[in-house]
Amino acid sequence: MLSSEIFSLNVSKEPYNGRAILPDFALDRVNDAIYLVRQDARLAYINNKACEMLGYNYQALIRLSYADIENELQDADVAALWWKLSLRPEGIRFTSQHRMHDGEIIPVEVNSSAWEHEGETLVLCVVRDVRELKQRTERYLQQEQQFRSLVENSPDLIARFDTALHCLYANPRVLDLIGCSEEQARGWRLTDSIPFDEPGMQLFRLVSNTLARGEKSESELEAHFGERAMVLHVRCVPEYDLKGEVVTILAVGRDITRLREAENEVRAAHHQLRLLASNQQERTEQERKHIAREIHDELGQHLTSLRAGLSVIGMQTKNPARVASQVEYLMTLIDSTIQVVRDVSTRLRPNMLNMGLMPALEWLRDEFVKNGGCSCMLIVPEGKPVALCDQVVTTVFRIVQESLTNISRHAHASKVSIIVQTSRDTLVIQIRDNGRGFQMHSVRHDAFGLLGIKERVDMLNGQVTIASRPGEGTQLELTLPLKQ
């Protein structure tokens, strides 16, 4: 508020004749509009800023009354009250609306105080155009509303603390987790609220470090809210005032529990793949060793015996009986050698696979019954067989073979069924047994038979489901897409 003392040195002693009351250089440099108003509401003086603000030239504006500009003063009671309050030592300060030359109503802030000049009492009005301030305030409120809407609908945990670590704000996500209302949360102190465990102390250190250093800090916390465990990435950011001093700390916590679980699942999957690759390599080496031993021991022995027998025959041509006996023995040895070669070849890849899936499954069923001592029923679709590529035939054959091997080793079943169903788009195979079954959640992570089956199916974009319960047997269902 501008008092009369401020202007006392600049008052002209000339009588009222428009601008003669105050010289131009005294008030025209002021950024606010200045009116000197008589008791009858006539304008005794105006500065250039008043003309600019209201859109009048000087001669037009000085002829108006203050009530023409301030509509509220057209009421006699309001005008009397305004005059009375303005004459108090402290004056009056209020917001109002002034009418411009073009009729537009603008918001203003008015400071009115008494002004004595040559025995006459006037009211000095210092008027500030607050349109820009109001627009800035509205923009600020709009931005604040947008920010609040964003924060309150954010899935993150957001809280603001003052320098004494009192909570100034907590978004609904925080309130839901800690189980309190906004009124209850406002004002609680961080040191009184956090649990004195490792995550609580980590959060306290984060906020304290941000407050002390004036720098952002972040870390991961494993927090517990009731029975719920969460992994939070917490980031604390200092907020400054116009003097550059830290006044508040904004803490944002993001729930990354699912991300960490996914990372753990990926690491576990990579570990399983490494184990599978290692196991596969070991099995390959064992198979090679077994084949090499069979070829060396069986086939090598047989060929050596054949060579020795032929040498004996060459030395015993004078004894026909001995020759016949040697020939018969060598024929038997040759038959045995041929069988060894067939066994080795079959173990590597059965010839039945070249005839299609159904003949291969029939051969596999017969071998299982012959070697396993367990009945096995194979049900195949009637009609024209579906043409399958070699990769699908081999994959299905190996999966059924691995399943029957698992049944033979672990299930102790007396009945097994293999059911094959085909449609236009899919091939479905079910393998059931009435064995002892197992708990699905107790399967070891290094059960490479089941893991190998899943890997084979994944390579063909298929699906495999395994259902089992102790004492109720096991069912494996394989579904593969068929390319047209």
In words, what does this structure look like?
- The protein has helices at residues 4-7, 24-27, 48-54, 58-62, 66-69, 76-86, 131-152, 172-178, 182-185, 190-193, 198-213, 257-315, 320-348, 357-372, 390-411, 448-459, and strands at residues 33-37, 43-46, 92-99, 105-117, 120-129, 157-162, 167-170, 217-225, 228-240, 246-255, 375-379, 415-422, 426-433, 463-468, 474-481.
- The protein has 484 residues and is of the alpha+beta class.
- The chain has a five-stranded antiparallel beta sheet. Strands 7-6-10-9-8 form a five-stranded antiparallel beta sheet, sandwiched between helices. A five-stranded mixed beta sheet has the order 11-12-13-15-14, with helices on one face.
- A hairpin with a 5-residue loop joins strand 9 (228-240) and strand 10 (246-255).
- It is rod-shaped, with a radius of gyration of 49 Å.
Biggest sheet, open or closed, and with what strands and sense?
A: 5 strands, antiparallel
**Whole-number radius of gyration?**
49 Å
Distance between the termini: 89 Å
The number of strands is: 15
Strand order of the largest sheet: 2-1-5-4-3
Beta fraction: 15-25%
Structural classification: alpha+beta
